Each structure stands twice: as C-alpha cells, then as structure tokens.
Amino acid sequence: MDMPVLVLNYNYEPLNICAARRAVVLVLGGKAEVLEHNGHDIVTPSQVLRAPSVIRLSHLVKRPMPQVKLSRREIFRRDNYTCQYCGLRTSDLTLDHVIPRHRGGGHTWENLTSACRACNHRKGGRTPEEARMKLRRQPFRPVAGPYYAIERRLQNGAFAEWRKFLPASLGQS
C-alpha cells in the first residue's frame, strides 16, 4: 500500500506522487480515475483491487507554486555539493552559519552554506571576514519549478507507465 502513484490534475498536468493507499481512497470516493495499473493487487476483506500507478483527479486543482524546504540535503544541492569557502567538491560536507547563531545569525537560506570540515573548523564561531575567508557565492533561497515535488521523488528513476504523462524534462530521469 506504500507503492508510489503519480497524481495528475484534471488537465493531465503532473501534480504529485502519493501512496497507493491514498490513491485508492481518491478513486473509491469518486474524486479520481485510474489511468494506469502497476500489475499488483490490493486485497481487502471484501474485494481484490488492481493497484493504481497513475490516477487523474476528476476536477481541476489550482495549486500554489511549491517552495523548497530548508534542509541539509537541499542546501548541499543548492551549493552543488561544493565547499563555498575552498571549492572542494565532496559528499562529506557540513553546514555553516555565515553569521554564527550565537551572534544573531538565523537558521535561514540566506545564512546557511556548505563547508568542508576543514573550512568549517577554521572559520569556527567567527564571521567569514573575521576568519579572513571569502565566500565563493552568497547563499540564497532557491526557486522551485512547477514540478519540484515530483522531481525530488523521481531520483530513483520514473516508472515506465509514468513516462507518457510526464514532460520530457522529467521523463528522462
């Protein structure tokens, strides 16, 4: 019941990815229709249902533009897994508060940056100017595209039955 299901808006625009349990509830409630099945069955005490892989909502949903959530992973992605002080590209990064928190720096997109362990240790609880270190790029809040929620979930590759419903830029994952 935790299998991913692609949710399409009434106009076939990809909206989100949900669990099969949620998709079945939407279909049985008449709020969505199944467009593709994934070959598995969902067995209930009274019936056997074919598990959906792609569903389409029965009405158009207007959704706000998605926002990128502030997290370690998203900071590292924004900074391209590169230390913003020395330029070392590595997967062993730490988060650095440009203005240290004990000096009033917040835990915000504009104050967090990726740093290798050596640079973070060298900077310590000082500002980059006090530590005589220069940021390669000022931290910023990244802008999410309309398919951000789906792009994040397609890291492991799209299901074959989803490809015809995804824009070409997403279906190539």
Tag the structure with descriptive keywords:
single chain, 173 residues, alpha+beta, DNA Binding (I), subunit A, 2 domains, four-stranded mixed β-sheet, two-stranded antiparallel ribbon, 5 helices, 6 strands
Give the strand tally.
Answer: 6
**What is Rg?**
22 Å
Coarse shape: elongated
What portion of residues is helical?
10-25%
Series of H and E elements: EEHEEHEEHHH
**Structural class, judged by helices and strands?**
alpha+beta
State the end-to-end distance.
24 Å
**If strands are numbered along the chain, what order do they take across the biggest sheet?**
2-1-4-3
Percent range for β-strand residues: 15-25%
Q: Could you give a short account of the major beta sheet?
A: 4 strands, mixed
- The total domain count is 2
- Are there runs of 5+ residues with pLDDT below 50, and where? none
Helix tally equals: 5
- The average pLDDT value, as a whole number, equals 89
